[in-house]
Specification:
This protein has five helices and no strands. The chain is 79% helix and 0% strand.
């Protein structure tokens, strides 16, 4: 069997090793995607609690416009958290390796080593595609964390300032 470039033969033991390494890679990436989305949802929940407490505590703020301005800025940061949460949790297309229907349709007459080769090649393509999806999700996790941290900081300063 030769590689896609047709230059060097692909040894069966090499193909077996590559297959064992990459066969579950897209499924593992899907698990990472779920983990990132759970982080986004958890941070949003915490930010919601913080803004709720800030609003309930901020009702009695009479220490001037400083604390009130900070609370307004905190609510604005919360709105940014909400936007980033919805952007980060939007549905994305995630690529998985060939399954039974595609294998049967395209490879039913091929020898087993050709099928393994097709699976390895498809897993590599899926991995590259999914890596970009995961990097995008990672960006939204960082954005949600950053705006949530800003919100907590603004609420904390506003509440402390109103008590001084």
């Amino acid at each position: 069997m030769t590689t896609d470039s047709g230059e060097q033969p692909l040894r069966d033991d090499t193909l077996d090793l590559l297959f064992s390494v990459v066969k579950d890679a897209p499924e593992r990436q899907l698990s990472v995607l779920d983990s990132l989305e759970n982080k986004i949802a958890s941070i949003f929940a915490a930010a919601s609690v913080v803004v709720g407490l800030a609003v309930s505590e901020g009702r009695g703020v009479d220490s001037g416009t400083g604390p009130l301005s900070l609370l307004i800025a905190a609510v604005t940061a919360y709105l940014a958290v909400a936007f980033c949460t919805f952007a980060g949790l939007r549905l994305v297309r995630f690529r998985r390796t060939l399954h039974a229907d595609a294998l049967w349709k395209f490879h039913w007459q091929d020898p087993p080593e050709w099928i393994k080769h097709a699976l390895v090649a498809d897993a590599a393509e899926s991995y590259a595609y999914n890596k970009k999806v995961l990097q995008n999700k990672g960006f939204w996790v960082l954005a949600v964390m950053g705006f949530a941290a800003l919100e907590v900081l603004l609420v904390g300063v506003a509440l402390i300032w109103s008590r001084v």
